[in-house]
């Protein structure tokens, strides 16, 4: 293949052609932001609608785990463009007519989809083989055809190779109208088939058992991809088209757990990247539109990856920190409560001791001084503990209630581990530590039912093991034997 | 002359019986000419819980899929309430294997259960409040009503299985086909599923269930089909579920049939 001439088709060379904007950079941005120029409006609007539609269609191909089908199909459109150019005049159309070219692209895209479905149905050939074969064979044929076309003078003038990398600037109002119409058609098809497509992507077997035709639905999905690719050729180009089908959908997944919301967000991200990308490539006249749109899109992807409300990195690390703070708090409350329990036991259930010294608490666990301090500060802000006049940490009434709940869960789980999971008594404390923070109410109820038939529900069982770290406090500790109910 | 017309299956004249939930006659399924199940034949009577038992690779899932036309049949006939699958699809509820789907999919538990109603809602219909209420009731029935709005990735294995069961229940089908509903679920879920199966039976419904745990077969199922590529034995559990039959089903030695299949497969690969 002839190396594509970036000077000609990859750059947004249309900008200086717009009258009156050869001036300063500031003038350019100013006029751009005001959409003073018809051409800018057309291009930006077209790119926006394209992104919107590709974002929505991409959700389904991504969830069907067929994201790369888009890549194969977009490459499969190229021979159609060449053929339409060569054969168009025979049917009485001008070869450079864009509608004819795009119809050719769509036709050969659909042929590619059929080829994928056929190859996949052959024994021992899987999806990846089908995609690889279709992509390379169709693209190869397309490149060969384009080389032939380029040798004619009409062919050179038509500049078909702009469909490879895309050139938003060459978009006309007719193109934008075509994009709008096709995007609306795609949206309509998705709306009518939303449930079928959802079922197809989620549970193919069940869908088939319900009477849905899986090959037909797959064909519909591929048809949608071909439609999107067809209108994307102009602005983004066939090589980068896959980005518009995958990246917005993948980015949207970080924001939501609802499919229709994902569809909206994906469309929004796609539309925004089309919009911003087309603007940027208009401002910096030498930037190729397809590449800029895709780069904008990936920027939005990284933002989503970081900030996404459901699964973004930031939210997840915040959740982790929250959880570990909650665990620390539970350890603190339980520590104070158990210190108090052992003191009461030692002195014959008379002494009312609700407080624990800082040093005592520090020796209970492997937490650092600063971590324990921070923890105490937080717990007192939440009204669970307070510092009494002697500087000891004392549970408030709410703190006592919370601590009793925690000790109850902890000991239930310990009992379960000893009696049902054969965990050694000396190890249960550690094991229960790990799990007690995530016990759900339903599970607690079942544990109570299982273990505490003779005990009143809610009553705190005695610890089934020796309380490490309490010897110094209490002097002696009751032996663990005979404590099991 | 009459005998000739009756064909090779003398004495088994087929009559379409509307009351028989599932009738399978000499069903053979092959994957690319390699047989998976051979000449399977049995009837399921109404209002019974039927277990399908057999070793891994015995073709249990394939059998269910062939009943529902999800895999092509090499030969044989399947009738559901005396009619072919296409015409009686609405009367069948299917519970696929839990592992067959991506549990990270962006839908809620209620969304999944509502899928059981898509057939009734139709292509252009809308999901209405009545549908959602039916789905919630089904979730209550399987004991996870409070999880309706959770995203499905937050479910435990047992809860996933219950979700699938609710999706089938909401169809209010007459025949249920379940692919290993008891696989890797907690004891509470197992009890819940058994309870639901029994109340189905009490309501005159029929369930055909692929099952792995041999210990519980006599307790759970009225009839059993012992399957290892072909039907080794089938009938009431107390008659068929014997040590001898189980040995024949799970026998360590390769049966002639398997050897023949293996030879066929090797030849296929050479071609």
Quick take:
The complex is a heterodimer of chains A (485) and B (271). With 485 residues, chain A is mainly alpha-helical. Chain A contains 23 helices and 3 strands.
Description of the structure:
The complex is a heterodimer of chains A (485) and B (271). Chain A has 485 residues and is mostly helical. Chain A has two domains: 6-311, ABC transporter involved in vitamin B12 uptake, BtuC, CATH 1.10.3470; 320-474, Orthogonal Bundle (Arc Repressor Mutant, subunit A). Chain A has 23 helices and three strands. Chain A has a three-stranded antiparallel sheet. In chain A, β2 (385-387) and β3 (393-395) form a beta hairpin. The longest helix of chain A is centred in the last third of the chain and has 34 residues, at 313-346. Chain A starts with 5 loop residues before the first helix and ends in an 11-residue tail after the last helix. In chain A, 43% of the residues are buried. The model of chain A is unreliable at 1-22 and 469-485 (pLDDT under 50). Chain B is α/β, with parallel strands linked by helices and 271 residues long. Chain B has a domain at 102-172. Chain B is built from twelve helices and nine strands. In chain B, the strands form two sheets. A six-stranded mixed sheet of chain B has the order 5-6-7-3-8-9, sandwiched between helices. Chain B is globular and about 55 Å long. Residues 1-13 of chain B have low confidence and may be disordered. Chain A binds chain B through residues 63, 65, 123-124, 192, 195-196, 198-199, 201-203, 205-206, 208-211, 253, 256-259, 262, 446, and chain B through 32, 65, 68-70, 86, 89, 92, 94, 96, 100-102, 105-108, 111-112, 115, 118-119, 121, 123-124, 151, 153, 167, 188.
Topology:
The complex is a heterodimer of chains A (485) and B (271).
Chain A: H1 6-10, H2 25-33, H3 38-63, H4 69-76, H5 78-87, H6 98-121, H7 127-150, H8 153-158, H9 162-165, H10 173-192, H11 194-202, H12 204-209, H13 214-235, H14 241-252, H15 259-283, H16 289-307, H17 313-346, E1 355-356, H18 358-364, H19 369-381, E2 385-387, E3 393-395, H20 397-420, H21 428-436, H22 441-451, H23 471-474
Helix pairs in contact in A: 3-10, 3-13, 3-14, 3-15, 4-6, 4-7, 4-13, 5-6, 5-7, 6-7, 6-13, 10-13, 14-15, 14-16, 15-16, 17-19, 17-20, 20-21, 20-22
Chain B: H1 2-6, E1 22-31, E2 34-44, E3 49-53, H2 60-67, E4 75-79, H3 85-88, E5 92-95, H4 109-114, H5 118-121, H6 129-141, H7 157-169, E6 175-178, H8 187-202, E7 206-211, H9 217-220, E8 223-228, E9 230-236, H10 237-240, H11 243-250, H12 256-270
Parallel strand pairs in B: 3-7, 3-8, 5-6, 6-7
Antiparallel strand pairs in B: 1-2, 1-4, 8-9
Helix pairs in contact in B: 6-7, 7-8
